[in-house]
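Hello,

Our lab assistant flagged a job as stuck in the queue for most of the afternoon. It eventually completed. Since we weren't sure the result was trustworthy after the delay, we are filing this so someone can double-check. Below is the sequence as submitted and the structure that was eventually returned. Let us know if re-running is recommended.
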Amino acid sequence: MRRWLNRILTPPLMFVAALILFVEEVLWEAAKRLMAQLGRLPLIHSLEAAIARLPPYGAAAVFLLPGTLLLPVKIGALWLIAHGYTLTGLQLIIAAKLLGTALVARIFTLTRPALMAIVWFARLYTWVMAWRARIYGFVKASSTWQALLRWRARMHAWFARLKPGRMAQRLRAIRRLKRRGAVR
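-- returned structure --
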C-alpha cells in the first residue's frame, strides 16, 4: 500500500516542489539585482552601510523588521479577501510577499556577518542550510527539474531574439527590402 501511494503521489509532488524551487530561484535572482540597483542610491547606500555596522542583536532586530512591518499589510489583505475583494487581497499578499522577500534577502546579505556571531543563530542557519541542500539536491536531481531548466533555456533564447535592438535591426531590414521592392 505504501509503495503504491508513493508511486502515485511522488510525481505530482515532485513537480510542485520543482516548480516552487524554480520560481524561487528566478524571483530571488531578480530581487537581488533590483535591491543591488536600489543600493546604489545615496540615501539607501548610507542606510545599508549603517545596517552593516550593527552589532549582532541589533542586526537580528533589523533582520526581523520587514516581517513585522508587513504583517499589518497581510492582515489588511486578508480583511479585503473576507469582504469580497478577493483579487485585490491576493494581489496585496503577493506584492507584500515579494517585497518582504527582497528586503529580507538584502538585509540578510548586509547583516549576515553580525548574525553569525550569535551562536544559536549560526547553529540554526547551518542546520537549515544543510536541510535545504538535501531537499534541493533531491529535487534538482529529478527529471522534472531538468525539464524546467531546458524550458528556461528555451525561454531565454526566445527572449534574446526579441531584444529591442534586434527587433529594430529587423524592422530596418524590412524597410530597406520594401524600398527595393523585394517585399510588398
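-- support follow-up --
The delay was a queue issue, not a problem with the job. The result is valid. The helical segments are 2-38, 42-52, 56-82, 86-115, 119-140, 143-161, 164-180. The longest helix spans residues 2-38.
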